[in-house]
Structure prediction request, 329 residues.
Amino acid sequence: MDTLIAGATRSAFGLLHRLTTPRLSILIFHRVHAHTDELFPQEIDASQFERLMQFVARSFRVLSLADAVAGLEQGTLPPRALVITFDDGYADNAQVALPILQRCGLVASFFVSSGFLDGGRMWNDSVIEIVRACARSELDLAFLGQGRCSLAGPQEKTGAILTLLSAIKYLTLGEREEAISRLLAASGVPALPGDLMMRSEQVRELHRAGMEIGAHTVNHPILTTLTPAQAEGEISSGRNRLQEIIDAPVELFAYPNGKPMRDYDQSHVALLRRLGFRAAVSTAPGVARVGDGLFELPRFTPWGRSLGTWATRLLMHQSHTRYELAGST
Prediction:
């Protein structure tokens, strides 16, 4: 059945290429769990990721982002062009995703927030792991303007996590740290895992395997919450650290969170140009075409555990060629 779906998808995308201008699909992933996560069973795990990558390998011309950008610049984008990207720098990208990509003969681009390497942890994962490990039946979230939150079971814990993420996401870095500290104290959880993110050696391993490494700031802040100087420091320092690790230029960037005008704006697009980046990706859904701005490339990953549903949604998304921009040209 997977082979039939791949064949039909390849034919559909080939016909679309003959009838319309070439389009670039960019997939976005974050974690690839070794096994299904009880709190977030809809998130991708190793078995599902391998099935998707086998399908992608049979159905698309998978490019590095740098090669896709060259195709957009030069008008040479091939039919069925697709790029695979990962954000943040999770250890399972190297431990779980890399071997699958290698077995499927695929290249991918990994956007790494350098400040969490070697034992660090992203704020959202601190929230998730605090709630996951909390043995109490409820939490008092009055310090975040929320009420008491039930933790009676997996569904309640997931609901509590989503409430907390929404309340904390747009705080400043300092406010985030304070909120996490207070949440940890309220939970009674003694310690949090220090192995969720990659080690520097794993970033080098990805690079040596032919994968592309891109910048994603140091601390993954929402850029619009920073001063211009702070934003430049986050972007430049993050790139510099990654260049030291892989001993190679880092010319591609992913905006943290990535929503145009809310998470970044035209000043950040201009900053990346000034700093000498070659291109950048957002999380605005859409497909890119020749002539589109290279500093706000859209990304999209279909949802649905059925491969047929996933493939259909990816195909339907090819019509989404107008997407929100912060103002690049």
In short: The first strand starts at residue 23 and ends at 29. DSSP finds eleven helices and ten strands in the chain. The mean pLDDT is 91. Residues 218 and 238 are 5 Å apart (CA to CA).
